[in-house]
Amino acid sequence: MPQEPSDSLVRSLFVRAEAASLAPVQSLLRDAGLPETDLRGEHMEAFFVSRAGDEGILACVGLERFGDTALLRSLAVRADARGHGVGDQALQTMEAFAASQGVNRLCLLTTTAEPFFEARGFERCDRTALPASVQASSEFKSLCPASAVCMLKEINPTSHPETHRHG
Fold first, then answer.
1. CA 18 from centre of chain
2. pTM of the model
3. DSSP structural state of residue 91
4. How far apart, in whole angstroms, are the C-alpha atoms of residue 28 and residue 58?
5. How confident is the model over 22-31, as pLDDT tens digits?
6. Which residues are within 8 A (CB) of 114 and not within 5 positions of it... i.e. 6 or more apart?
7. Backbone angle region of 137, left / alpha / beta, with phi > 0 → left and psi within -120 to 50 → alpha
8. CB contact set of 25 (below 8 Å; sequence gap of 6+)
9. Chain centroid to CA 152: how far?
10. Could you tell me how far CA 133 lies from the centroid of its own chain?
């Protein structure tokens, strides 16, 4: 019977992935039922991982940028660590990173995690509402089924001028 992860394991921080993280990330994604066949070492530059000491990668999250819109992809948490806030940490890490890189909107496709993302500010949107470059990505064209829900979130509202101020 699997043990609950320790508090220190669950509190592990996310760090930028290295090219050597590719195989463990692909394995975690396969275990989670997420697309991984298109990932290459160079993708790891826009991935973050959380390591569980010598137990390997606990979670990962990636980003593909298309101008001021980015595709959030590959958010996966190892089965024994789910339900402990690790997914929230992954999402917060990536939102902060994306905003620091000038990304204003995050989009994603999901077949199983709509409630998770909806509870964190993402809203359903039509795929055709996204930039053509996003629609041309391998995730949109072939890796994710047409039945996948498309979701969008504004993450950098400070980049939009306010219409009026209260003061």
1. 17
2. 0.83
3. H
4. 8
5. 999 999 999 9
6. 124, 149, 151
7. beta
8. 17, 36, 39, 44, 47, 49, 57, 60, 62, 74
9. 12
10. 18
Segment 37-47 shows an average pLDDT of 89
24: amino acid identity, one letter: P
Q: Are 99 and 54 in contact (CB under 8 A)?
A: no
**Token reading at 154:** 């504004």
pLDDT digits (tens, 9 = 90+) for 74-119: 999 999 888 889 999 999 999 999 999 999 999 999 988 999 999 9
Q: Which of 69, 88, 37 is nearest to 153 (CA)?
A: 69
Query: Beta strands 69-77 and 57-66: pairing type?
Result: antiparallel
| Contact predicate 97/160, CB 8 Å | no
Residue 101 to residue 65: CA distance in whole angstroms = 9
Q: What letter represents residue 10's amino acid? A: V
CA 128 to CA 112: how far, in whole Å? 21
Q: Is 135 helix (H, G, I), strand (E, B) or coil?
A: helix
